[in-house]
Here is the input.
Amino acid sequence: MEGSELSVVTAPDRRLAREVTALVDRVSRSTGHAAVSETKRGALTHAVDPSSPAAGPAHLVAAVVARSGGLVLGYAPVVGDAHAPQYAMEVVVDPTGGDAPAMADALVGSATDLVTGLGGGTLRLWAAQASPSDDARAGAHGFEIERNLIQMRCGLPVPDGRRRPGPGIRTRPFRPGLDEAGWLAANNRAFAAHPEQGHWDLATLEEREKEPWFDPDGLLILEEGGQVAGSCWTKIHTDTDPAMGEIYVIGVDPDFHGRGWGRALTEAGLDWLAHRGLTVGMLYVDADNVTAVSLYRSMGFVDHHVDRAYLRHLA
Here is the structure.
C-alpha cells in the first residue's frame, strides 16, 4: 500500500465514475470475470445521475477509493438499503498496481470502519471466484462465510442423453409494457426467501429492460390459465471467450410446483441459447440449494468456480 492514498467518497462525480469503470474493465479483462457485480455498477451510475434507474433497493452509500500517482487502482463500493442497516460491498484492485493484497486489505478495513461510523449493522462482503486469500482476508476482519454461489457451466446444445421425458411446455416471449406485473408477481413468490431476487419492483425490472443485453425474446414466459406460472430469462455474454449463454433468472410460481416445469424451463432456455449459436451455457446457484444443484448436474452442468459472501455484524 506504500505510496497509495485512500479516500471515502459519498458523492461521486462523472470523472470518478469513468475512472472506476476503467479500473473495473481492466480487472475484468485480466481475470476473465466481472470485477464488480451488475447491481453495484448500477448503484454507481445512479449515484452520479439520479435520473437513471436505480439497480434495486440498495443505493451507493459511499465508495472507498485507492489512488497511486493519481490513478485509481482500488475501489470498494458500499451499498445499503434505506429501510434497514444492511450493507454490502465488493473490492476490486488492479493486480498490476503494486501490493494488491495490502490494498485490498486496506479497502476492506476502511469500508468496515465506514459502516461502524454509520451506526453499525450487517455488512456483507462478496468475493468473485473466491480464493483462500479471500477467506483469510475476510476472517482477519471478523467476517464469517455466509453463502457460496456456484457458477456452473455446460456444453450446448444439450445432448439427447441428458434430456429426460417430462411435461411438454409451450413458452412465449416476454412482452415489454404488458408482462411486467405478472412476471414480478410470479418471480417474487418464487424467490420469497431469496436475499436479492425476491424483492424486485417495477423500477428494478425496467432498469434491466434498458440494459444493452436485454432481449425480450430471450425471456421465456410460461402461462397457465392466463397467469404467469414460470419463466426462464436468458442473457448472452459477448465479452467472454467463448461467448456464453446464461440462465439468468429461472423460477416457477409455488402454486405450480411439482409439475417438472423447472427442468423443462431450463431446457427451453438452453435450447433458445443454442439456437443462437452459443456453445457454452452457464448459471449461478446457491450451494445449499441441494435440489437445484442436483438437477443441474443431471443436465450436464459442472462446477466452474464459487463466488462467496462473508457476513459481519457491526455494533
About this structure: DSSP finds eight helices and 13 strands in the chain. The domain at 152-306 is CATH 3.40.630.30 (Aminopeptidase).
